[in-house]
Design a protein that fits this description.
It is built from 7 helices and 6 strands; from the N terminus they run E-H-H-E-H-H-E-H-H-E-E-E-H. It is an alpha/beta fold. The protein has a domain of about 140 residues: Rossmann fold (3-Layer(aba) Sandwich), CATH 3.40.50.1010. It has a 6-stranded mixed beta sheet with strand order 3-2-1-4-6-5. The longest helix has 17 residues.
Length: about 200
């Protein structure tokens, strides 16, 4: 199964209430990668997510820490001196900021086929990694009956197209304040944060 690297903004948007539509899409994207076990992040992404969520969005640090713990299900790339040198070369050759280049080379080192990012140009291929913006994905590429966002992986799309009703629990069925970990973890569906929060079916 093709591996996908998640850029920081996709994770941060999942926490941002300013744009509910974008928030729903990002949460669904994160959920789909978690269920398929083909998502990757890096130490850089974890650090940036914590800082942006607490400093810019004003999220509770302990809640963000809990979310970061749930991200441990993703393969995490460690930032080494060698990777930093690769990022410098990548930034010079491709005219990227150092931080964007470090994301790209981290995705390359994890052998990811795609990098889900809003910062870079979708369709561009850098060091063998294809840039994709998940915010532009059409819902019917994943789940034809769900208005929320992608519920299925690309590998499951063919099966999804034959369904009339999606029975996959969606992240938007949960209250962020009351059950934060349930947003990201498929196993959290049965966790006793608040038993009244049961998954709903798409219309």
């Amino acid at each position: 199964m093709s591996k996908v690297f998640l850029d920081t903004k996709i994770l941060v948007y999942s926490l941002d209430r300013a744009d509910p539509g974008t928030q729903k899409k990002c949460r669904a994207c994160i959920r789909s990668l978690g269920e398929d076990n083909n998502g990757d992040i890096s130490i850089q992404v974890m650090q940036e997510f914590y800082v942006a969520s607490t400093a810019k969005l004003g999220a509770d640090p302990l809640i963000v820490e809990d979310i970061l713990r749930s991200f441990e299900r993703f393969e995490t790339v460690l930032i080494s001196p060698g990777l930093i040198k690769e990022a410098i070369d990548c930034s010079i050759i491709n005219r990227l900021s150092f931080w964007d280049a470090l994301i790209v080379v981290s995705a390359e080192s994890a052998q990811c086929v795609s990098l889900w990012s809003e910062n870079l140009n979708p369709g561009q291929v850098i060091r063998g990694v294809r840039i994709e913006n998940p915010l532009t994905f059409e819902n019917n590429a994943f789940c034809p009956s769900c208005p929320v966002g992608p519920a299925f992986s690309r590998d499951q799309a063919a099966d999804a197209m034959s369904l009339t009703t999606c029975h996959v629990p969606h992240v938007t069925c949960y209250s962020w304040e009351r059950a934060p970990a349930a947003i990201y973890s498929s196993s959290a569906i049965n966790r006793p944060y608040h038993h009244d929060f049961s998954p709903k079916k798409c219309p």
